[in-house]
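Notebook entry, structure prediction.
Reason for the run: the old model in the group folder had no record of what sequence produced it. Starting over properly, with the input documented here first.
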Amino acid sequence: MEEDNSGKAKRLADFKALTFDCYGTLIDWESGIVEALRPLTDRVGKALGRNEILKAHARQESMQQRYTPAMRYSKLLAVVHKRLAEFWGVPTSMEECEIYGRSIPHWPAFSDSAAALAYLKRHYRLIVLSNIDNASFAHSNRKLAVEFDAVCTAEDIGSYKPSTRNFEYLMEHLTALGIERSDVLHTAESLFHDHVPATAQGLATCWIYRRHGQEGFGATMNPGIVPKIDFRFNSMAELVEAHELEAAGTRS
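New structure, fully documented this time:
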């Protein structure tokens, strides 16, 4: 737990709103990606490890997001599939690419996400800031089983995180809803997409470190730096437990 400028430790109760990354934090996109790519990776002439697949995906996805920031995510994934096929030297078809782009509805939620969100909804306003398109998110939201107070997508904004535009859009929208910057705890797994730009925008952050105990950065790029983190938990369930302990006066 970090301290604010007064030297007083920040508490989870200090915030009124949790802004969430979705994919990697609430939805297990890495498992979804690996499973949906299996028809392609099975054709590669050598066995590919999970992290090897995710690292290649991160590189192709990040590049495509920089060059086509207004492309809808499901369409962008189809291009990523094509680039991965070229990178691994295996044939594919546009039909296969498009099938991969439509795989998001099959990506599973983490087992603790729905219950954690139901609990947190009783204490915070919940907002999504995601590199996704609206139609794809609607499928994922059914797995999360919660009504978010606002959903801001890359499709709405016309760019992808880690662009500062996405966080500027988020805060302008939240200010209109009566939520100030100091009220917000940005909650995410990805250091690259979320924690580095959120910290640069002056937001407090909560790291849901889903990849604890694993090597590398999975489906995200290496952020180059480890930014200041205000809270760190290995799961959404741990976040809920910490909130409960704090409310009971037993969390240091």
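Summary: Strands lie at 17-20, 125-130, 150-153, 184-188, 204-208, 231-233.
The old model has been moved to the deprecated folder.
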